[in-house]
Amino acid sequence: MTSRPPPRIATWLLQRCLQGRHAASLIGDLLELYQQGRSRGWYWRQVLTAIVADIVDAARASGRSLIVAVAAGWVAIVLWRELNAVFIAYTGDIFWSLRRSGVHRPEGLLIAWGLGALLRSVCYVASGWLVARVNARHPALAVSIFAASVLLIPVPWQQIRMVEPYAIDAMWPVHYGMALVGIFAGAWLASRRRQRYSMITGS
Amino acid sequence: MKRQHLSQTELMVMLAILRLGREAYGIPIADEINKRTGRELTMGVVYSTLGRLEEDALVRSETGEATAARGGRAKTYFELTAKGLKQVRETQRSLQSLWNGIPQLRSDPA
After folding, report:
1. Local structure of residue A137 (DSSP, 8 states)
2. Quick one: A81 and A171 in the same domain?
3. CA neighbours within 13 Å on the CB side: how many for A73?
4. Which pLDDT score is estimated for A25?
5. What's the DSSP call for residue A151?
6. Is the ipTM above a cut-off of 0.90?
């Protein structure tokens, strides 16, 4: 039998995305059938349905903990939003302190806006971390659903109004980018902590 | 938690495992279902169903041999547990009792 390489991206996706108990056997079966002469289209179809089936299984297995994890992430965001409101209340003081120390108005606003953005980023990191920790069994699924919910329900953050030359007409790509990067960074931190813990305990 | 019923796909997978005996791994299971029912299940659906059944202790698995054609990955063979066999029998009984006595479904001698 001549060995022909299967579609590389499809196989990479399979190896990255499948988490089920028999993932290796499933990949082996698909490779075996592909070597028997199945088409690339067939292989791709099998890969995509396997990934969807795996996600559905993970959601079913997570059940209540998936809902709890996403809700916990949102509670973190709402609490942080209140903290952000406190920060906004003190922004004027920060701004005038900067002005008194010789910082120009646009730069002062940029620094104040940057501090607010940093606070929001920390919030997203913390919420992503929390979601991944609460649903430790299927963190990728929980974090993806949480991130999607954050994109669908934009958080009405209070923030500093930017002035020229730093004002950007459409700030939503910045907000969405910040949310996505923050949430997935938090999940990554949670996974690193888990790996370190399993190395220590051997579990 | 006790399982109330088997879905059609679960029942087909379990019957295919019973028919295949010791050769029941992903590919033959999908082939057997396709050959007997004409239904083409993707491997993802077959393994997803097997995973669910194993979680409910209706089937058990055993790791088999790895081959080069499989990229060095081992096969996983499946067999029904006693609980699984009992569940299949119960399903057969309940379906049979629904089937019996329906005049429209009596086989036509012509």
Report:
1. S
2. yes
3. 33
4. 92
5. H
6. no
